[in-house]
Every structure is written in structure tokens, then in C-alpha cells.
Amino acid sequence: MSIKKIKIFAITGSTRKDSSNFKILKFISENINDQFEIEIFEDLERIPHFNPDLDDEFPPEKVIFFRNKILRADGVLICTPEYVFSLPGSLKNALEWCVSTTIFSNKKTGLITASASGEMAHQQLLLIMRTLEAKFEEHNQLLIQGIRGKVDEAGMIINSQTLEVLALFIKDFENQF
After folding, report:
1. What are the structural domains of the chain?
2. Is 49 in contact with 77 (CB distance < 8 Å)?
3. How far apart are CA 92 and CA 76, in angstroms?
4. Are 113 and 85 in contact (CB under 8 A)?
5. CA distances, 43 to each of 28, 80, 94, 132, 172 (Å)
6. What is the pTM of this model?
7. Is 60 strand, coil or helix?
8. Is-contact 42 76, C-beta < 8 A?
9. Are 10 and 79 in contact (CB under 8 A)?
């Protein structure tokens, strides 16, 4: 008898290949309880620009694919950088395609902003996810400042405090399920 794994759809807010945000999601996927299955989505740049005129009963195929991944997941993780004191446009664009749906309503969600500063983007991410009715508490969201000095080229977290907060974040995220 196989045990059904808890499916987590993880979204990296950076379109940079092998970004610090991707490395954090990879670290989480490698260190989370084995009852979880994490799929990391890295194709934000392929989601078309949000256009309310196209957000009807037949939205673009890439939008349907993205929405279905969220809908079918038991939970969502988002890890994003901050660009010019804001969320990256590609992440905000993808989330805008979700506003007319209820796919995030009560969806167990973990939110991480990892950037040089990240404060403004983190506040914007929290506001958007509250608007989408995602389910998260204070212990399911994390701001990691100065991320470039905390992750090495190989993707290893090299800062002990960051390792500790990520371990706690993982434990708290697991406890939602």
C-alpha cells in the first residue's frame, strides 16, 4: 500500500536560472519530511502578460497550466527576490492571473522573500496573498535579507542562522498539514 504524498507546488519569483531563491526552494525540497513531494515551477517568463480581456472562460494555455498546478497542490511555497523595492513583475503577473479565481482560497501557503533587503517586496507579497485568501500564519512566512552572502555557488546555505530559520520554517510548514 503506497502512502499518498502531500503535493507542494513551489514558485520561484526569480526568472534567473539557478537563483538564490531557486536554491532555497531546492534546499527545502531536500530537507522536508519525505511525506511531501515538491515540484518547483521555474517558468514564470512563459506566462503571458496579464490582460483582463483574456481572463475569461478560455484563458491562455500557460495560464490554465499554472492555475491547475496550484489547484491540484495541497500547498504552495513561494520564494521571491525583491526588484527595485517591489515584487518581480513576472511573479506579480502570474499572481494577477489568479485574482479572478478561488484557487488560493484557504490553500496552505509558505512565503519567503530572500533578497538584499526585501522588506517592501515581502509586504507586497503578504498583501497580495491575503487578497487571494491564501492560508498562512506569521510562522509560515520568512524574510531573509542579504541572501547572496548566505548561499554559495553550489546552492549550499553557508550561514548558520539562515540554516536555523529555514529548518524552523520547514517544520512549521510541515505542521500545517
Report:
1. 6-174 (3.40.50.360)
2. no
3. 15
4. no
5. 19, 14, 10, 21, 27
6. 0.96
7. coil
8. no
9. yes
